[in-house]
Amino acid sequence: MTQELSVGFLPLVDACLPIIAQEMGFAEEEGLNLTFMRDVSWATVLDRLLYGHSDVAHMLAPLAIATTLGRGRPAQPLAAPFVLGLNGNAITFSNELADKVAHDCDGELCDPKGLGARLRDEALARKAAGKPLRFGVVHRYSSHNYMLRYWLAACGMHPDDDVEIITVAPPFTADALAAGEVDGTCVGEPWNSVAVDRGVGRIVLATAQIWRRGVEKVLAMRESVLDERRESIEALIRAMRRAGEHFVNPANWEGHANLLARPEYLASDPKLILAAISDELILSQDSEPVHFKDFMFQYREAANFPWISQAQWLYTQMVRWDGFDYDPADAEKAGRVFRPDVYRSALRGQDSPLPGASSKVEGAVKSPLGVGAEQGDLVMAFDAFFDGKTFDPEQLEAYLASQT
Amino acid sequence: MRIAIIDESASRASIIEEGLSQLPDCQISVITGRHGLLARIAEIDPEIVLMDLGNPSRDVLEEYFAVSRALSRPIAMFVDQSDDDAIASSIDAGVSSYVVDGLSANRIRPIMEMAVRRFNAFSRLQSDLDAANSKLTERANVDKAKRILMNTKGITEPEAYAELRRKAMSSSKRIADIAEALITAHELMKD
């Protein structure tokens, strides 16, 4: 019998895998029928998940952790057995700010260090003038917020003291740039491209330049739902792996762009979606697209595997920016939100590679590296942070201490 | 009790406002626009905030509650964290609420219940309106289909209607569906 699962999502390109799983028949092959609930704020996606309107949801990885730890609302344990993708976000500056600090990027994405140094001068000048630069991110508990902060801090700006960071809903980021409410945004696609298309901003960095393999959205659910619907969830994981294989095949890109653009999904321009999924970004209005490899990362290198170390890195950033003390019990709980055991159990005996370990040193791969796998062959590529630092989950406290 | 209603639908906001104004001791402010939202909230300094679930600014508001030092007291989400049924019914109705911490449940509950009732009433109104609109579209389609039959087959209006009805009955479909299919086919033939 067909099992029904309802999927909450926000209209962003990286909601692609469950949508393709349903529309291309991979869900059906696994005996699943997916229905979709689109919302316009993460708060509502989360409410619907917690109160059972949806069974599973497309969710910001840090928000799944914050919910489990009870930050901002009563704690509710969530589980994330599948990473929906790595990166896929970009930093867009207002034209005015881009003219000042990103003018010599020669129509390419800027170099994060060089841009950061020039931005620092401008940020400090603006702060001294009593009009600090202001950046918009999509949510307090988002990788967008943490990537932006990581970059600013590593370039010598304190994200709370030297600039302002506020929350702006993704559909309003272009408006906020146009109205001068913010000087820059860090948001997922298609919203950077929408701002560029409207001529109100320029894409200066991809978040993949800050951390080459940064964890982004996850498939999240209540822990109780995972227990009760375990078979259906594992079937969904297999269907989404198949969808991922389909997603990264260039022959399918145009079809996917048209599918995702439909009114019930992203209700957006297929041209802008195609740009994101084909790694061809238009950085400023009327310019030629620039190729940036692995702008989005949905499939290869076991991209969907929920590494405990990814969740723990997010925890370190939560401690760093929320200003509370490191708590080993919380670090443990945060790590346990990611469920490699479920991922493995779903894909054992399938043709997906399964890593042997559940944690790794993040940012440590400098050149393609074969890693231990319990199934298949797994080669990981360059995954560095732009400042060359690495995160060893065994040294979590020392890492935190090194990040002031 | 100072209550802020944040809703991009001005008509729904007014329906809720009207409901709440029947309760004693409620001072209600309505915010429908996105601009200056946080400044307005700071100015109103509400004890209860009601916001529709479909409002994209919810994340902005939650961020503000999480970090703001402007409000004298922290705002906690929902009536009472143990009162899951009340929360679930408000989520079902499509309304989220934020309440100043420490406000007694007795004072909040009637307000929440009224808001939920009014949200539900508004959804019913909306679905009635949608149904009425689709009836109107259906009627227009049937008229259009009749004209196509009259023009192409040279028959009278009652005859055209009888044909549509006969086809509908023989294929166990609704007349409106037959009419729509006929219009589509006719448009395709024209190209």
From TrEMBL, chain A:
SUPFAM superfamilies: Periplasmic binding protein-like II (SSF53850). Transmembrane segments: none annotated. The keyword Transport applies. It holds the Pfam family NMT1_2. Keywords: Cell inner membrane, Cell membrane, Membrane, Transport. It is found in: Endomembrane system. Its main location: membrane. GO terms for cellular component: endomembrane system. The keyword DNA repair does not apply. This is Nitrate transporter. It comes from Croceicoccus mobilis.
From TrEMBL, chain B:
Residues 122-183 form the ANTAR domain. GO terms for molecular function: RNA binding. It holds the Pfam family ANTAR. The keyword Transmembrane does not apply. It comes from the Bacteria. InterPro entries: ANTAR, CheY-like_superfamily, Sig_transdc_resp-reg_antiterm, Sig_transdc_resp-reg_receiver, WH-like_DNA-bd_sf. One of its GO terms (biological process) is phosphorelay signal transduction system. This is Two-component system response regulator.
